[in-house]
Amino acid sequence: MSKVVPFPSGTIMRSGKPPYDGAMDARLTAIETLLPTLMTKTDGAELRVEMQKIAGETHKWMLATVIGLFLGFGGLFLAMSTALKPPAPQATQQTPIIINVPGAQPAPPQAPTKP
Rounded CA gap, 38 and 32, in Å? Predict the structure, then answer.
């Protein structure tokens, strides 16, 4: 942090020039050493292009995720609606009616006839 210099009390010099402060040189030197590390217009333009590229990729991923979720939940809905659907009534088969037809009965033995 820089040292804050209090406003000098007493009379104000009316020459139109600020009073010379020895700490001003140190602050100016600190600012001058900091200036080369600040962002320039070309750095800002490169950063803007990179940020737009990242934003475009993020939008693609978000769209793909939304579409995937939509399809996933749609499939889940169809699976659950099929699983929860009541079973279709099956045609009940009646027990077959069995009719036993008696077989041909042998003819009763005839009494022997006398010749």
Answer: 11
